[in-house]
Design a protein that fits this description.
The chain is mainly beta and 188 residues long. The protein is built from 3 helices and 12 strands. Strand 9 and strand 10 form a beta hairpin. The longest helix is centred in the first third of the chain and has 8 residues.
Length: 188
């Protein structure tokens, strides 16, 4: 059974008791993976930027989401696209993460990639790639949330992920699997 109440008002219950900086710093304590989203503009130019807001939504149908700040220079182009690819980066791809987060440069210069579904650029070497049809977009607060239906995905085992925590990059050190009694995040 699912319940969605779309008639709830879109107002805050109370004014925040913290500054925007305090909120951002607190959010930074949640470690995330680092990814690059790629697409093609209406005129066929490759687009791409580093994100850390990638998340799974549903297994059936296979859905993922990612979000982009309203102030992003790529927002307009990405809201017009119907297909994208999300690349989960490895620790060795930190230079790519930094490149695709830098403004005012040719982000694609020298980047090894091939064309995937619908001509979307797929960057070589990622830990995982999700090629998606953009099903919906939601403007919320100062971001737009994109929901994509995964049309094709693939992954490579044994690679250290690139992680982001507290404004810094990290790599993982395996601590072992969940205990047999614990359920994984995907099973909840």
């Amino acid at each position: 059974m699912s319940f969605v109440n779309s008639s709830l008002p879109r107002t805050a219950a109370h004014p925040p008791q913290f500054s925007p900086r305090e909120f951002r710093d607190a959010l930074g304590m949640f470690a995330t993976g680092v990814a690059i989203v790629t697409a093609r503009s209406e005129n066929g130019q490759p687009l791409g930027m580093t994100i850390n807001s990638f998340n799974s939504v549903s297994l059936e149908p296979p859905l993922v989401l990612w979000s982009l700040a309203q102030r992003s220079s790529l927002l307009q182009a990405l809201t017009l696209t119907r297909h994208c690819a999300i690349h989960v980066l490895t620790a060795a791809q930190r230079p790519l993460a930094e490149r695709f987060a830098t403004r005012g440069i040719d982000r694609w210069a020298g980047v090894e990639h091939q064309l995937g579904l619908q001509g979307v650029p797929v960057i070589a070497g990622a830990a995982a790639v999700f090629e998606c049809h953009v099903r919906s977009q939601y403007a919320e607060g100062d971001h737009t949330i994109f929901v994509g239906e995964v049309l094709r995905c693939g992954h490579r085992q044994g690679l250290s992920p690139l992680l982001y925590h507290g404004g810094m990059f990290y790599t993982e050190h395996a601590l072992g699997r969940l205990s047999p009694k614990a359920t994984g995040p995907m099973d909840r």
